Amino acid sequence: MIAPQNKILTNPFILYAITWIGVLLVYQLEWSHLCPKLSVGYRLFLLSTCFISLLLGLATHQKRYFSYNPLRVINFRTCRKVIYWLLLLLFLEIIAARGIPLLSYISGNRETEYTDFGLPFLHVIVVNGLMICVLYSFYGIISTEDKTTKKYGYKNMILAILPFFLMFSRGGIMFCILECLILFLMSRQRISKVLFKLAAIFTFILFGFGALGNLRTDVEGVKSMILEFGKATEEFKSSCIPDEFFWTYIYIATPLANAQHMVDQNPVVDIDGACFRDFAVFELMPDLVSKRISDGKNMQRQEMDKILDAFNVASVYGRTYKYLGWWGPVYMFAFTVFFIFITIGLIPRNSPFYVLGIVEVCMVIVMNLFDNMFVFMGLIPQPFMLILLSLKYRKHRAKQNSAGQCAV
Fold first, then answer.
1. Residue 167 has what DSSP assignment?
2. Is 288 inside any structural domain?
3. What pLDDT digit, counting tens, does each position of 343-388 carry?
4. How far is 373 from 321, CA to CA, in rounded Å?
């Protein structure tokens, strides 16, 4: 077994501070005229939350509240059975949809959006269940040195991630990769050496991401259309920085730019009881719940004020300001702290799902940079599913212990 670790990157609070400080630094590059100046209010709020998160991170780090341990009992066979059941449910969805999104896309049928694929509620179980299976398989792989066990784990990973290609779900593939990356970084003894290698690989990937984006958007005779579309500054255009990296900048900066734009467009917010109600329903509850609570008339999610229609995300804090003014982001940060403690606190440390729970919480924290993941059904069910699996595991262990005592 690989020796247990307790790394800083295991801590969601420290990860929160690192990621948001990174966003602030990227935003300060000011490569686009689309991005408004960041107000003193938003600077103060984000820096304050980063400072509080660092304090919470240091406190919990010393107490080893968040820690990585290798998987002791690797149950790949049960994981394989779960994958088969999920594939069966996916097959039912394919029958209901009368087609496979990837094949439809390849054949040139672009009329049906791949995002519409799947049956209500059932699709949530399939997608989130497969992501957990991918993560659990990878967890088992890095927890053992046995080649036969690793081989079985890799087969599980392929089986679990293949459906995302069939569903043409680029977001699902990205989530699986990021979750495994977070878990991998948690398990490393010497993180500095790994980070240097990853930084080089990540830079190459970002360049490739921008290059593919240019290939998709450029027209004959006109190159780097993203510079015009994203209103790149003359300073950036005349710099030696490759145009491909502008894609990364615009994707990281525009969520915060939209959040700031909503403050600029709504300098005064009238707050009443309905505002608190709508904030709680639409920003703190998953879509699956809020859609059934809302009447569609008196209760509606706030519309987003966007700097450009194509950029339609505003981080976890964006819409909150339109409900409650600056109290909206403050309450959302408080809810984030609550979410971290409660989620991890409900999973016992001796559970095989404890480390996976930390990964999922860290994933929510990172993706909150772009949009509100607390309402997104493609990610938020996973921590709750792990809590339920932990409860089932605890009952199973209790039955085993009781049977052992009776036998004695």
1. T
2. no
3. 999 999 889 999 999 999 999 999 999 999 999 988 999 999 999 9
4. 17
Among 53, 20, 68, CA closest to 183? 68
Q: How many domains does the chain have?
A: 1
**Pairwise CA distance, residues 336 & 368, whole Å:** 10
Please tell me the distance from the alpha carbon of residue 262 to that of residue 304, in angstroms, as a whole number: 7
Count how many Cα atoms sit within 13 Å of the Cα of residue 14 in the half-sphere of its side chain.
16
Q: Return the amino acid letter for 264.
A: D
Whole-angstrom distance, CA of residue 374 vs CA of residue 368? 8
**Distance (Å, whole) CA 326 – CA 268:** 10
pLDDT of residue 403: 57
Q: Is residue 191 part of a domain?
A: yes
| Six-digit token string for 318 | 């964006």
What residues contact residue 275 under an 8 Å CB cut-off, 6+ apart?
269, 323, 324
- Tokens of residue 364, six digits: 């929510």
Residue 9 DSSP code? G
Give me the domain span that covers residue 161.
Answer: 1-265+345-366+374-408
Answer yes or no: are the C-beta atoms of 45 and 336 closer than 8 Å: no
Half-sphere exposure of 400 (CA within 13 A, CB side): 6
One DSSP character per residue, 46-59 reads HHHHHHHHHHHHHH
pLDDT in tens, 68-124: 889 988 899 999 999 999 999 999 988 887 878 877 777 766 555 556 677 888 889
Q: What is the 3-state secondary structure (H, E, C) of 342-401?
A: HHHHCCCCCCCCHHHHHHHHHHHHHHCCCCCCCCCCCCCHHHHHHHHHHHHHHHHHHHHH
